[in-house]
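Let's practice the habit of predicting before peeking. Look at the sequence and jot down your guess about where helices and strands might fall. Then scroll down.
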Amino acid sequence: MVLIVRICSEDDSKLRQRRNVQPKPAMKFRHLEYFVAAAEELNFTHAADRLHVSQPPFSKQIHDLEGELGIELFERRRKGVALTPAGKSFLIDARRILEDCDASIRKAQRISRGEIGELAIGYMSALTHDFLGKALEVWRLTAPGIVVDCVEMDSVTQERALLEGRISVGILVPSNRPVLELLHVRFLIKYPVSLALPKSHPHADKAEIPLALLKEEPFIGLNRMYPNYSDWLSKVCRRVGFKPRIVREADGAPSALAFVAAGFGVAVVSEPLQKIPAKDVIFRALAPEDSAWVPVGAAWKPDAVSAPIVSRFVDILAQSCANGNGRSRAVGIKLKQSGSLQG
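Done guessing? Here is the structure:
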């Protein structure tokens, strides 16, 4: 008689073991509810009645839970049950898990209703001091459970911060940049454009200045504040026969006005910048044929967790602008409006 012996490799043995192991059913939230009810009633029938289920399925759920944990949670007695030491310990944690879950549900519901949460606001002080303060005052009274943080940043930085989730809403100058297609934008207000000149400028005595008179002038750039500034300025200057020469690029309103005061050039700015203290700088209106507007809008991610809160806050921003805190409501402004710094 020939004895044939098959030598199994270690991999074969492991494969057979995996085939023979049946996955255990995952513990469900319902198991914890049943267990806590049973632990508090110390009677499966009473606990089943409390949860409005029949007793046999209830007992099976408790049995399944003990089987999955590999321990006995209850001592079965003639009348009712008693908790084992392991059951007493498990009850403490089970109650905490259920309470935490209930609290999470309530919190999520309140966030969905815009009652609690956090609101990080990106803004540019040069364009928002007419209405942001009033909006925040109203918001504090209507949504005291929302923690507000305001972070000053230019329009381009706000766009990036919105996509990265570092801010909830940005108050910025909208542009036709493709990134805004990923965001929801609501226009709030528009401001007329004016010229910032050194006090010693030859045209300082004029109430209105046509752009054509500035063809020999150097200009201060404001691309970080107004994302389409260079394109817009080139377009409007070409209409009157010249190409603007940008000699300095400012990173914000104060530096732009500082460059103007120092005589580096002139700047085309929005009306709110006239409220920034700037020694040796004067502001003059553009001639009617060259008039333009700077739109200001609120932008946010429509699918963000904070979207419901943001929507409520933007409503308040719009009300603050509409109530006369800004120069003009931006109702009906289109993304590529003629005469707008949006491009």
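How did you do? The radius of gyration is 34 Å.
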